[in-house]
Design goal:
With 219 residues, this protein is of the alpha/beta class. The chain is built from six helices and ten strands.
Length: 219
């Protein structure tokens, strides 16, 4: 009987879009029978694993829990060590990027400083709205996770090299539109807005107005 490995996925219920986009773990279980897979929303449920993928989880995981696993890996969408920190996809889109590097790295302190295990790239054409951007992020995550698990327990890693830069945490004020600017000038800001949780907005004469954007079908 071949050796089975334990692989876990830790998600955040308060930031569960990646869990929804991945659609469960059937895309892995069908093709990687040598693994037992676990999905969890609480760090207490992810101990003693050969590999743990921490996806969109924003809480601090105790060091003893991480130490109980063979590998603890996270996904970060930037050309590390450039672009450590918060919301790297959104910040790069605002900078005009159409190619966004995606790295699988080891969970480490300080955040986003771990060795790099796998890399890929998200290709954008500049028209995608947030739901489509998230699909691209999920597909990149699937690609990196699959690559790592297919090679495990054999894998290579490399340290990050160069001077690190950091993106700050976005605030509600970052969703503010300027009514004196054109839609075209602010289109990237509209693209990354969350219509449900953090819609773009503007203010005129002391009143605030929300702006929600969707793609028109058939055009």
């Amino acid at each position: 009987m071949s050796l089975k490995y334990k692989a876990g996925f830790l998600f955040d219920r308060d930031n569960d879009w990646i869990y929804r986009e991945l659609g469960g773990l059937t895309w892995l279980a069908e093709h990687l029978p040598r693994y037992d897979f676990v999905e969890a929303f609480n760090e207490k449920d992810i101990t003693g694993l050969d590999v743990l993928f921490i996806l969109g989880y924003t809480k601090i995981i105790p060091a003893d829990i991480l130490a109980s696993n063979g590998l603890n890996l996270v996904i970060h969408e930037s050309a590390l060590p450039l672009g450590r920190g918060f919301s790297p996809v959104q910040w790069q889109i605002l900078e005009g990027a159409t190619e966004i590097p995606v790295c699988m790295i080891e969970a480490a302190h300080p955040a986003d400083s771990g060795d790099i295990f796998e890399k890929t790239t998200i290709e954008l054409d500049g028209q995608e709205l947030l739901p489509e951007i998230r699909v691209a992020q999920a597909n990149a995550t699937k690609e990196l996770v699959t690559a790592l698990l297919k090679s495990f327990p054999n894998y290579s890693k490399s340290p990050q090299e160069g001077q690190a830069t950091y993106y700050r945490r976005r605030s509600r004020e970052d969703d503010r539109l300027d009514p004196d600017k054109t839609i075209k000038e602010q289109f990237n800001q509209l693209r990354i807005a969350d219509n449900d949780l953090y819609p773009a907005f503007f203010e005129i004469n002391g009143s605030r107005y929300m702006v929600r954007i969707t793609r028109a079908e058939g055009l």
